[in-house]
Structure formats: structure tokens, C-alpha cells
Amino acid sequence: MSTSFNSEELDLFAKVLDRACAQMLIHDEVTRSLIATRIFHLAEGGERNPDRLLRYAKSMNGSFA
To answer: Which of 9, 35, 59, 61 is the one with CA 20 to 30 A from 26?
Structure first.
């Protein structure tokens, strides 16, 4: 299934990604990419609540090593 997102949604996802990485002290691009994938995975199911997206993005904290 392919999902397309509008510019407002992409902006929301970018902000959530930045918040998640800042809170988890993530700076490397590989881990940022993994977190972004988690955000998009939930968003593909229709989630747009930034708090829920953030919790989901951070739910594997420690599993990125």
C-alpha cells in the first residue's frame, strides 16, 4: 500500500522526528532514518496526533544500537 502525504503532514512528521531525536539525544542519520520510518509506519495507518506519533517514535529507545 502506498500512501501519499501533503506538505502540512510532512511538516508535522519532521517536527515529531526532530523532537524525538532531541529527546533521545540521537544525532546520527542512520538512527534518525529508523525513527522516521517508525513515524511514517504509524502515519500510514492514519495517525496524525503529534503526541502519539512521538510516543511511538520513541517506543524503541535503546533498540537502535
So the answer is: 9
